[in-house]
UniProtKB/TrEMBL annotation:
Molecular function terms, GO-annotated: calcium ion binding; Notch binding
Lineage: Eukaryota, Metazoa, Chordata, Craniata, Vertebrata
Keywords attached to this entry: Disulfide bond, EGF-like domain, Glycoprotein, Repeat, Signal
Keyword Glycoprotein among record annotations: yes
Protein name, entry field: Protein crumbs homolog 1-like
Native organism: Phoxinus phoxinus
Signal peptide region: 1-21
Pfam families found in the cross-reference section: EGF (PF00008), hEGF (PF12661), Laminin_G_2 (PF02210)
Residues annotated as domain EGF-like: 18-60, 62-102, 289-326, 507-543, 759-795, 797-832, 834-870, 889-927, 929-965
S-S bridge residues: 92-101, 316-325, 533-542, 785-794, 801-811, 822-831, 860-869, 917-926, 955-964
Record InterPro entries: ConA-like_dom_sf, EGF, EGF-like_Ca-bd_dom, EGF-like_CS, EGF-type_Asp/Asn_hydroxyl_site, EGF_Ca-bd_CS, Laminin_G
Alphabetical GO biological process terms: Notch signaling pathway
Segments forming domain Laminin G: 104-287, 332-505, 571-757
Length: 1008
């Protein structure tokens, strides 16, 4: 073999020895080839290639392990090959663990709690690595604490920052690591705390946190264990507390959520089982985003305020307290069943302050009563009591303030008294009731607080007596005055004595005395009662009977209710020849009789309405000369009283007269008269007289006259008559459905009167003559006469034409009234209608009808003429020029009777309904144009052209003149010959000059 061949084989063998297995690109589907001692290994791509993941030695096997995987909770499935078998593994998201990510590692502390994990170490210096994720809003909390023998490792939050501390027996001070990042923001953060060898570390794994700020590690001294010490034993117990410091530990517990807590290589999951923590308290699985105030935990209108992770506090409305505002201050009942109740407290603080605020809820129905008194050993310097249902406050027995609103309505009211160094203010709820300046008041330790009254009964009476009602949530400044303490611990003043004050706020049994009358049913209310009354009763105690609902009166009467009973009101009619109505008191009238009211209707000028007398005393109400008059006199030597109305009353209308003493309190007083309720214009007597008490009994009262067999009886109608508010009844008790229940009343002693209001039959026989209609006007008649008769009895003939009934015509009286002879152009019964002369006009060919008084005319268009526009105007020949006629103005004429127009320039005429026309026009309104061609003035076949007030003849070629009367036929022959001669000469000249050049002087205009 030649040396060249040997060299070739040696080079080839050398190249083969150094060649790699990756040179042939054995890895498929995105796999990466890695050389391994002359061999290769394919690292298959973890990303999908052609829609699949691949495995195997050369990444050619489609991995099918994840086609039916059991990964849970959003875990990511990773397929792989294991000895030719398709398998998968689950990569768990944060918060889950297990082969299938089926176990949640998230738990929460909604209140103080912990998880205790205990492990056995070979010695106390084994490495410690704890990793956990957390979220919270707390700024101070213990995340975990690990204790091994005498060394204590703590991971906590201080001012919202992570702090890792180590405390050992041999160290005088704790070793601290603190990261600057704020982590109390409610978001997830991951922290790692470690201790191994001589390194002590703390790190925060947060993407938004730079590594140099969130990763700290320091070197510490590592002491060797001494022989015989606990640290040199074979086994050491390690206790790890998560979320707190254990049952005996102090400090702030963690409130929030944790997940993925790893102790070295062991994950800590709360729950049961062999690997569960040995102890756990107040731990809940999961970590929901829950609003602690969403479910309104604060009751009784309390306001929920978030205070931490899923924690809250309640701002309670008074009178409620407690975590959820469920605890209500116990109300104290004062004066239950009218007992005398009061309480005494002592001020037991050294410096209550410069200002004093006393507030309480008060419920009462009483208008008087003592609420509260502050006193020292010498005086009472603050008093609060009820005055006419309103709160009144007094300082130093001098300055006082009265509230504006009453509080005695049976409801709770919040009363606040604010005593400041220089002013006193009173509030009802939040509404100010006023403020006054005061002298300084100082509350000191040992002062007494009296509530509801004083021990001295006489001293309490000065303020309306003992309080009757309820007081709740009494406070002075921030401290409570509790009559019956609540279970919630609050700052309170000491209760020294409590007398007849009961627990709660129950009312008295007001129905125990049966207050409801007339069968009413009593229902007890708080310190009050209400009566359910039968249908015919009314009033708070059903004391008022609704008599009118029982239909006590006859059908013709109207029931009128009174306080003690009812009256049946009806009208009666009296005639001058009929009997009067007489009355007497029933002997039980006790009231003072100081007034009389009477309703009447009459046409009499003089009559007696009412009269009564006893010895020298008398009263008479009458009508004199149409005026109502009161005459009366008291006992002997009393002055005579006379009053009369200013207006007349004898008009047949209803009137009401009210007589009363001007001052009924006095024994003697002037009297006043008010007519028809015109109270602003009374008539007052000049002299005074006594009342009418002599009418109570044993006196006859005559209604409608002076007495038997005396003249001047009343004729007319009477309505309600009352003396001192007691009616003079027209019905006796026997004539009504129910007797009157009132004790005081007058008795009718005469026969039954005529009910209803009716006068004399003045229309029978009919007094009206000549067809007049009689109208009854109550004791008076009126005749409504026909149009041609007049007079009280229609006995006077009227001039029927006196009213000028004919509008456009002459009136003539006839037996049936009158008759109108209409002017020309008018018609109708009163000549009020204009005659339409154009109604049936005969204007043709578009002619316009012109309306006149007696006739009409037609305004024709230009192509027609004649009275009715029926004649056609000849058309002009083609050779005659056409030019429009001038448009002449129109004049508008007329008077108050008639309006008309003058056409074609005509003017209004002094003669009615005519016009003065221009030459060439005629007609009543110049509507006709005269035809000057009507006489055929044009001769020799000339055409006559009609113009305004003239004509024009258009002649034939052989004639001329105004009438075409001149024959010009020879003249035209001569003219034609001369014309042809001239035309021939012109043509000859033009022919001879055709060959001549043109002679043009271009610049002739510029030659000078």
């Amino acid at each position: 073999m030649s040396s060249a061949a040997i060299s070739f084989w040696m080079i080839l063998l050398l190249y083969a020895g150094v060649s790699s297995g990756c040179d042939t690109n054995p890895c498929m589907n995105g796999g990466v080839c890695v050389n391994q001692d002359g061999q290769y290994k394919c690292q298959c791509s973890q990303e999908s290639y052609n829609g699949h993941l691949y495995g195997g030695p050369n990444c050619m096997v489609v991995l099918l392990g994840c086609e039916r995987h059991w990964c849970q909770n959003g875990a990511t499935c990773h397929p792989y090959l294991d000895k030719g078998r398709h398998r998968y593994s689950c990569m768990c998201p944060e918060g889950f663990t297990g082969t299938k990510c089926q176990t949640s590692t998230t738990f929460s502390f909604e209140e103080s709690g912990f998880i205790q994990v205990q492990t056995i170490l070979a010695n106390a210096f084994e490495p410690l690595n704890v990793t956990l994720s957390f979220r919270t809003l707390q700024e101070v909390a213990t995340l975990l604490q690990c204790q091994v023998e005498d060394q204590l490792l703590t991971l906590e939050l201080v001012d919202g920052k992570l702090r890792h501390s180590l405390q050992r027996a041999q160290d005088t001070e704790s070793i601290l690591l603190e990261l600057p990042a704020m982590v109390s923001d409610g978001r997830w953060h991951t922290a790692k705390a470690s201790l191994h060898d001589s390194m002590f570390g703390l790190s925060l794994r947060d993407p938004s946190c730079p590594g140099d700020l969130c990763d700290m590690e320091v070197q510490i001294d590592q002491a060797e264990p001494e022989l015989g010490s606990g640290l040199s034993g074979l086994t050491v117990i390690q206790n790890l507390y998560i979320g707190g410091r254990g049952e005996q530990g102090a400090g702030s517990s963690f409130l929030g959520c944790m997940r993925d807590v790893w102790l070295d290589s062991r994950i800590v999951v709360p729950g049961l089982g062999p690997r569960a923590p040995i102890k756990q308290s107040n731990v809940k699985q999961g970590c929901g985003d829950w609003d602690s105030c969403k479910e309104n935990p604060c009751q009784n209108r309390g306001r929920c305020v978030k205070t931490g992770w899923r924690s809250f506090s309640c701002e309670c409305h008074r009178p409620y307290e407690g975590k959820n505002c469920l605890e209500e201050y116990v109300a104290a009942r004062f004066g239950h069943e009218d007992m005398e109740s009061h309480a005494l407290f002592r001020v037991d603080e050294d410096d209550p302050g410069d200002s004093t605020t006393v507030s309480m809820f008060v419920r009462t129905r009483r208008s008087q009563g003592l609420l509260l008194v502050l006193s020292n050993s010498t005086s009472q310097y603050l008093r609060v009591w009820l005055d006419d249902g309103k709160v009144k406050v007094q300082i130093n027995n001098f300055e006082s303030l009265l509230g504006r609103e009453a509080v005695n309505d049976g409801h709770f009211h919040l009363i606040t008294v604010l005593v400041e160094p220089e002013s006193l203010s009173l509030f009802m709820s939040t509404k100010s009731q006023g403020s006054v300046p005061i002298r300084r008041v100082l509350v000191q330790a040992g002062d007494a607080i009296h509530v509801g009254g004083l021990a001295d009964r006489r001293a309490s009476l000065a303020f309306g007596g003992y309080f009757k009602g309820c007081i709740q949530d009494l406070r002075m400044n921030s401290r409570r005055l509790q009559f019956y303490p609540v279970s919630v611990p609050v700052s309170s003043y000491r209760l020294q004595s409590l007398l007849e004050v009961t627990r709660g706020c129950t009312g008295d049994d007001s129905c125990s005395i049966n207050p409801c009358l007339n069968g009413g049913v009593c229902y007890s209310m708080w310190d009050d009662f209400t009566c359910s009354c039968p249908p015919n009763t009314a009033g708070q105690r059903c004391e008022e009977v609704k008599w009118c609902e029982l239909s006590p009166c006859p059908a013709a009467a109207v029931c009128q209710a009174h306080t003690q009973g009812f009256e049946c009101v009806v009208n009666v009619s009296l005639r001058s020849d009929s009997h009067m109505i007489t009355y007497r008191g029933n002997g039980k009238i006790k009231r003072y009789l100081s007034s009389i009211s009477i309703h009447f209707r009459t046409r009499q000028q003089n009559a007696t309405l009412l009269h009564a007398e006893r010895d020298a005393q008398f009263i008479t109400i009458s009508i004199q000369d149409g005026h109502v008059v009161l005459e009366m006199q008291g006992e002997e030597q009393s002055p005579y009283v006379y009053i009369h109305s200013l207006d007349l009353v004898s008009d047949g209308q209803w009137h009401r007269a009210d007589f009363s003493m001007d001052n009924p309190v006095l024994q003697s007083s002037r009297w006043r008269l008010v007519l028809d309720e015109n109270w602003e214009k009374p008539s007052i007597s000049f002299t005074a007289s006594e009342d009418l008490d002599f009418l109570r009994e044993d006196v006859d009262i005559f209604l409608g006259g002076l007495g038997p067999n005396l003249e001047g009886n009343f004729a007319g109608c009477l309505g309600l008559v009352e003396i001192g508010g007691l009616a003079l009844p027209y019905y006796s008790d026997m004539e009504m459905n129910l007797p009157r229940p009132q004790e005081e009343h007058f008795l009718r002693t005469s026969a039954t009167p005529y009910f209803g209001c009716w006068g004399s039959n003045v229309c029978e026989p009919d007094p009206c003559q000549n067809g007049g209609v009689c109208e009854d006007l109550f004791d008076l008649f009126k005749c409504h006469c026909p149009s041609d008769w007049d007079g009280q009895l229609c006995e006077v003939t009227l001039d029927t034409c006196a009213s000028n009934p004919c509008v456009h015509g002459a009136c003539r009286g006839v037996s049936a009234g009158y008759e109108c002879s209409c002017d020309v152009g008018y018609t109708g019964r009163h000549c009020e209608m204009v005659v339409d002369v154009c109604a049936n006009n005969k204007c043709s060919n578009g002619g316009i009808c012109l309306r006149g008084l007696k006739r009409y005319a037609c305004l024709c268009p230009r192509n027609t003429t004649g009275p009715f526009c029926r004649e056609r105007v000849p058309e002009l020949p083609w050779y005659i020029d056409r030019f429009p006629y001038p448009k002449l103005p129109v004049s508008f004429c007329g008077n108050e009777r008639w309006n008309y127009s003058c056409f074609n320039g005509g003017n209004c005429s002094s003669v009615e309904d005519t016009c003065e026309c221009l030459p060439g026009f005629a007609g009543q309104w110049c509507e006709l144009e005269l035809d000057e061609c009507a006489s055929d003035p044009c001769l020799n076949g000339g055409f006559c052209r009609n113009l305004i007030n003239r004509f024009q003849c258009v002649c034939e070629m052989s004639f001329a003149g105004d009438h075409c009367q001149i024959d010009v036929s020879d003249f035209y022959v001569y003219v034609f010959l001369l014309l042809w001669q001239n035309i021939f000469q012109l043509l000859s000249y033009l022919i001879l000059r055709l060959d001549d050049d043109p002679e043009v002087e271009w610049n002739a205009a510029n030659d000078d």
